[in-house]
Design brief:
The protein is mostly beta strands. It contains no helices and 29 strands. It has a domain of 206 residues: TolB, C-terminal domain (Neuraminidase), CATH 2.120.10. A hairpin with a 6-residue loop joins β18 and β19. It is globular, with a radius of gyration of 19 Å. The N terminus is likely disordered.
Amino acid sequence: MHLRATTRKLLLAGLALALGAAPLLAVPAQATTSTVALAPVSAAASVALPGARISVSTALFALSPDRSGVFNWNGATWTQVGGPAATIVSGGGGLVATNPTSGDLYVYNWSPNSWSRIGGPGKQFALDGSRHVFGLSPDGSGVFVWMGGTNWNQIGGPASSIAAGGNTLIATNPSTGDVWRYDGTGWSRIGGPGAQFAVDDAGRVYGLSPDRSGVFQWQGGTDWTQVGGPAGSIVAGGGGTLLATNPTTGDVWRYSGGSWSRIGGPGAEFTIDGAGHVYGLSSDRSGVFQWQGGTDWTQVGGPAAWLAAS
């Protein structure tokens, strides 16, 4: 099966992105840089993606340990803003949640306990920096964009995963693992398989090589530059922030100005809000913490099942 635009089929090349292993034991304090040039560099143009837009703000949300309620942190206190949810997904200043019984998707209206149903179940959802909501059908057979109300338009065919940020939507081919980028009218292949992909608020795309031996940044066309060594996972978000976890220790590292710095120990999850604030959930999920700079963290909340920052 192939990822395709609604009106035309795209041929998915089998050429894999050659992500070379970095001679590093962990995400480095100083990134190793090498260029993977599979085609001439072509800078990505700014595009206007179609679809409806959700209300926007910057905030941290948490799902209670038993998933019975969604809570919002305003910098001083926590307020319950929603009831039971299976998952919460944020991005671009918005928040959506799935109903634990039906799987239906709801959008938060930025008023406590005010939610609107916007669609049925999906395999995965993502929000970009322009407040568009994208969804992957439950069977992974199509990529959709929300058009308002409960209306969705199909913009792509089968995919195994999607990610969005800034003006960028990406999807991975379920057969080859190749990563494709949507420009508002069609899809173009930008690279081969990876263990994980992430998109920051400026639309920069990052990938973790299939064997997790290196972190790479997309440069346009099908060109990627290695910016880091082995990592367990990557997270991108507001303020152009990129995080990576050490595959051995679980420590979290932050990429800035071409180099990496360790900012903390292991955690169950890390997330970044629209202003670039970094939050972490402790390894046992017993506390929510906010990064204060250096390796300093302040606890801002108790147990949680999941975090989502917008």
